[in-house]
Design brief:
binds magnesium ion, single chain, disordered N terminus, about 15% strand, alpha/beta, 14 helices, binds adenosine-5'-triphosphate, five-stranded parallel sheet, two-stranded antiparallel sheet, Rossmann fold
Length: about 300
């Protein structure tokens, strides 16, 4: 009571206690924006990383083994927050400037020679890329820059300024494009190349750890909601056993597990049959050395796993 009186007495100098706590809970409510979706299971650490990146308005750099849901995360954020998703798939030939805009000189030349269009308005020949469109959008959007490590080393460095300032200049027209609403930027990497320190400094980072048994069962249920419990149990035992084999170099991932279960179910393979034999191994293992070593173990010991 005394504390409340003291705070109220000085309310013009500092916020009173009830207001401060109310603001805190409003802040907390607006912080916990992303919670995953019915189709995408996000661990608490991943949700936190997404929400921190949104709150700080910094790009979120996502790394993780292939098939751990890096790309579909951006779709899930877009669905959960009701924002449009713009995607920029990076290739080895991608240039940072392509994501901003390209000046379609060929079209202009064609129009000059054959068309009856007015070619003096250069703005009609500026084609915005995903990054450029995300800046120009009136609504806040999710921008996915997928597989940034596919491009050359200069690519991330070339984006520093635009990602920092969220603006760029169209040289041909002199126009400055400034983000109307800062997009939620999700950048994925398979770590094929090291990313420059200056780039990393500007991002929030999260590594998607490979899901444990329980999380994986939840992910599988998203894709196979009516899978029989015993089949799920057997499948997970065999899957994690395969991943644990030191001689298996290309370990099967979440997406391969989902495909494997689909194949087993279509073929009517029961959990009992799975204990004797691992069918359709080619869905899980993609290197012949990996297949040979697993089949070799089977020939030597008469079994695959130790269960
Ligand atoms: N947490 C998850 N919840 C639901 N589905 C998931 C999850 N993680 C992965 N999947 C499923 O696994 C598949 C692969 O996901 P995705 O393509 O996003 O992986 P990735 O990490 O981008 O792989 P790559 O590095 O090969 O591009 C998708 O079909 C996706 O639905
Ligand atoms: Mg991907």
């Amino acid at each position: 009571m005394r504390l409340l009186g003291f705070v109220m007495g000085t309310s013009r100098l500092r916020p009173s206690l009830p207001h401060a706590s109310m603001n805190r809970s409003i802040d907390a409510m607006s912080f916990h924006q992303f919670t995953g979706t019915d189709d995408y299971i996000a661990s608490q650490e991943l949700r936190d990383a997404v929400n921190v990146a949104i709150a700080l308005e910094k790009p979120l750099l996502i790394r993780g083994e292939p098939g751990t849901g890096k790309t579909v995360l951006a779709e899930a954020i877009s669905a959960d927050l009701g924002m449009e998703l713009l995607t920029w798939h990076i290739k080895s030939t991608s240039k940072a400037s392509d994501g901003l805009y390209v000046y379609d000189t060929v079209q202009r030349l064609n129009d000059a020679r054959f068309g009856d269009r007015d070619i003096t308005d250069i703005r009609t020949y500026i084609k915005y890329g995903a990054l450029g469109r995300s800046f120009r959008s009136d609504q806040r959007v999710v921008l996915l820059i997928d597989e940034i490590d596919k491009a050359d080393m200069e690519f991330p460095n070339d984006l520093l300024h635009e990602l920092d300032r969220m603006s760029f200049v169209v040289d041909e027209t002199g126009e400055t494009v400034e983000a109307r609403r800062r997009p939620v930027v999700i950048i994925t990497s398979n770590n094929e190349k090291e990313l420059p320190d200056a780039f990393l400094r500007r991002c929030v980072f999260h590594y998607i750890a490979f899901p444990d048994h329980d999380l994986m069962a939840d992910i599988v249920r998203v894709h196979h909601p009516d899978v029989e419990e015993e089949l799920m149990r057997q499948v997970l035992i065999q899957f994690y056993w395969l991943r644990d084999q030191p001689e298996v170099r290309k370990r099967p991932s979440t997406s391969e597990l989902i495909d494997w279960i689909a194949a087993l179910r279509r073929a009517g393979v029961t959990s009992a049959k799975l204990e004797e034999k691992l069918p359709f191994l080619g869905v899980l293992l993609k290197r012949e050395q990996d297949l040979e070593s697993v089949l070799g173990r089977r020939a030597r010991t008469g079994r695959y796993s130790s269960n």
